[in-house]
Design brief:
- This protein is mainly alpha-helical.
- The protein has one domain (16-88).
- It is built from 4 helices and 2 strands.
- A two-stranded antiparallel ribbon has the order 1-2.
- The longest helix has 18 residues, at 71-88.
- The chain starts with a helix and ends with a helix.
Length: 89
């Protein structure tokens, strides 16, 4: 289904509020990037990278704002730290 169709269905209330796959299993991307911690979210605060289409979740608007000050570097750090946490499990 195309993004436009998803948007129409979401606006009409016919899809759940989160109709996308979140990166890091819904963990706060800023918490991973800056603290190396998994902070679970409901992904109601999110950002979709326009270059990749990947969606990142945040525990607060402040976390999102700080993350977006340098998204490329924060994505790199979050990916690295998430991979390390997954290896420990």
């Amino acid at each position: 289904m195309h993004r436009f169709a998803f948007a129409v269905l979401a606006v009409a209330g016919l899809l759940p509020s989160v109709a996308f796959a979140e990166e890091f299993g819904g963990t706060c991307a800023y918490g991973l990037a800056e603290r190396g911690r998994e902070v679970k979210t409901n992904c109601s605060i999110n950002w979709t990278n326009p270059g990749t289409g990947k969606t990142y979740c945040f525990s607060s608007e402040q976390s999102k704002s700080l993350f977006l000050q340098d998204p490329e570097e924060n994505i790199r750090k979050a990916e690295d730290r998430f991979a390390k946490l997954q290896k420990k499990q």
